[in-house]
Each structure stands twice: as structure tokens, then as C-alpha cells.
Amino acid sequence: MLPTGSGKSHIIAALCKDALTQWPGTRILMLTHVKELIEQNAEKLLTHWPDAPLGIYSAGLKSKEIKPITFGGIQSLRNKSADIGHVSLIIVDEAHLISHKAEGGYRALIHELTQINSSLRVVGLTATPWRLGHGAITDGDALFDGLIEPVTILELIKSGYLAPLRSKSTIKKLSTDGVHKRGGEYIEKELQQAVDKEDQNKIVVQEIIDRAEDRKSWILFCTGVDHSHHIADELRANGIITETVTGQTPANERDRILRAFKAGNVQAVTNANVLTTGFDAPNIDLIAFLRPTMSPTLYVQMAGRGMRIKDHTDHCLVLDFAGLVSTHGAITDVKPPSKKGNGDGECPVKMCDKCFELVHLSVKICPCCGFEFPPPAPKPVRLHDDDIMGGIKSMEVSSWNWSIHVGKKSGLEMFMVRYYGSLHKPPVNEYLVVNNEGYAGERARITFAQITQDSHATIAMTLPTMQDAVERMNRADPPTELDYKMDGKYPRILRRKWN
Hints:
globular; Rossmann fold; single chain; alpha/beta; 3 domains; 14 helices; six-stranded parallel β-sheet
């Protein structure tokens, strides 16, 4: 399990190179479902290993080469086990697409290749190790029996490898009232009818434009082909250079559109179920969710398009018209979808306090004795924007104050920085334990040096007293913005920004 943008293609390259280097004669098959991922993975392999014995087997890429390392599309190879022959290792990119049951193209090909080599091993990579209606990809009669999560989204953001998302609760909300579900997901035809309305499209597009400000690269996820075109038409009517990509878009036209989008010649692209995997455009700085979905996999894939490091900004704005953050939670803590009911779950019942009859939760009067159940306690009202990053908060800083604080346990002096925002927000405190030994002290001293540099404070690392440092820092420029996350009762500063 690796987050979008964490470098799965580099890891695939390393697996291939290590396997053939350590065990000459190894034969590897890398499978995925779209030609863009085949191209990306092949490019990274040749970057790390220019002389790799690489073959490409993909009808979409007009190549049918089988070599010691073969990167191919499952659609092209699913019936080619006899041509492929002996394989030692299969690597599957977007492995959540493999069926839990012994059916489908992936399972059929793997079964046939296992008949040729009973020692065949399979490694899968995915950002979303779940399937709607089945749960985790290791559950039940699944191909995979273990899950490795070497790094998290928050760790990659803190280390500077991914850009954070900032979600905003929108004024307009897309309603799914009356839309039925099939297989746990909204029925697409009914969903389009509920969402794709001319008046509603105008309101949504106007809000996107109002909130976009100076953002340059927008991607909009729509409910279907017609909805994608209608939203694009409305954006063009407002002067936004927009293109549409759907499953009906010819391959050469799609390539032209996406090249123009990545080059900055197209500001917005609307799409329907296309640009979720295999699409890498790092400078996306605005995502609009216009497609309600019950699939956490689709939600994470859509959000992941905005998490790559950008040339012109440090984050991506997410406008959640579809209510996906409130449905699925922060992308840092998405839960696997529940499996289909098997009769083992708890029933939604309550017990009558008078006659002890068990009744459904919705019953207001006991059918046995006439007892009237008290109304449920109202939920507390909470005004907030759903947070797509799971606890990462942003704060515009108006001023700061530096002082000396003495640790209760250590008795050592440390810096305390108090960041002030708007009047209605409490200040955020940061403690820099510059006099501590070990890693904590070393980290604090590095952070202090970075702050002094960014704030244009003329300060040396060795000063007569800490009070001297405090006085100089109080005259320096505070950051204009903070990102922080609560660790227990103390905030941990993730990012400081100076204009």
C-alpha cells in the first residue's frame, strides 16, 4: 500500500533490477490495466537501468515483445500464457482491480502461469487496497495474504515529497436524494439525472470560479459523459479554457488534450471515470468533486491527482460539492468499504424499558405494551469545513511572540513561540528544545536555524544569552501562514510559510 505520488514506478523498477541482479535467469511480468501506467513504469525502469532487458506487450502501445522483463496490459496478455511461458515474479500495478474470487482476467492468467511454474510469486501495489462490496484485498478467498504499508501520506507530506490538499466546504451541495444503489454504488443513470441540471451546473461553475482565485490547473470529476460536457460548456461560457476527456474520447484526441493541459495551455479538464489512475499532472492546483460516490477507492484516487509537488504553489484546493470528505473521512484515514452482509452483524434494535420487548431502532411506540420511547438526544451542532487531510489545520499568522520557557521535568530553558491569527482563533504554541541532548535537541536547533533564516533575522547560532535571541526574533518577520496537527494536546508545526 503506497500513496498516490509516492513512487510506485520507482519501486517496481527496483524490484525488477534487484531480482535479475541477485537471481540471474529470473523472468518478470509487470501487469496493469492502462497503457499510461505501462509507459510510466517502463520509463522509470529505463531511467534506473538503461540496459534493462525490457519488452512491452500492449495493443494500445502497438508493441508485442516478450523479454526477461515484460511490461504489459492485462487486456492484451490475459489469454497469452502459452506465449509468456515460465515466469518467476508477477508485479501488478493497481492491484485492487484483481478479483477476490477466482475469476476475471488477472486471476485466470495467474492461475495458468502457476501451472507452468508452481513457485510463481505475485506482488501487488496500490494506493487503495480495497474493493467495494468485498472489503480489504486480503479478505476472503483473495489472492493476497498480507499487506505492507511502508509509509503514510502524512509522512510523505511532512518530508516534502507530497503536496497537501486543502478542502473547502462548498455553498452548493449536490444531493443524491432518490438515487438508488446497485452493488453498493450509486446507479450511474439516476446519479446523472440528479446531478446534471442546467441551473445547478451554472451555480456550481460560478462557485468554482469565485473560489479558484489565481489557480491555474483545474480537474473536475463529473458523474458521466453528458455531465462532463455540460460543465465544460459552462466553464467556456465564463471564459475558462476547458477540454473534456471521457471514455468516448479518441486516443489521439485524449493525448492532445492532456499534453495541452500539462503544458498550461488548457486551464480546466472535465472528465468522467477516466483521469483517476495512470494520469500524472503534477501542477494540478484545484480539484472539484462533482461526482458523489460510495467507493473509498474512487475517492482516494480522485483526491490523489492533486498531491504531487507543484512548480507554482505548495498545495491543492479541493472543492467538495459531492460531500465525499464527510462520507469517507480524511484521505489519511479512509476505512475499507464494508463487505456484503453475511448475517453476522448486529441488528439495529433497541429494548423496551417497560416490557423488555426488542424492537427496531426506528419504532417510536412499543407494539407490545404501548410504551413511548423518548426521542433520541439531538446531535451537537458543529460548524466546520470537512478536513480532507485528517487533522491538518491551517492558520493565517498576524504576529508572533518569542519567550523563554523552562521545562518542568528537565529544568532546561527552551524557546516558546506563540503564533497569533485572527481574533476568534486561539494562538498556536511551539516549543523548541534547543538545549536538549540527542535527536530532539538536534532537530530543534535545525528548526530554529531555518526559522531565523526564513524570517530574515540577523542572528548567530551562538549568542550570549537566550534572552538576546528572543529579543532579536521578536523584531523579525513572522510567517504569514502555518500548517499544524495536534499530537495529543500539543500542536506539531508541519509547515511555516513566508510570503
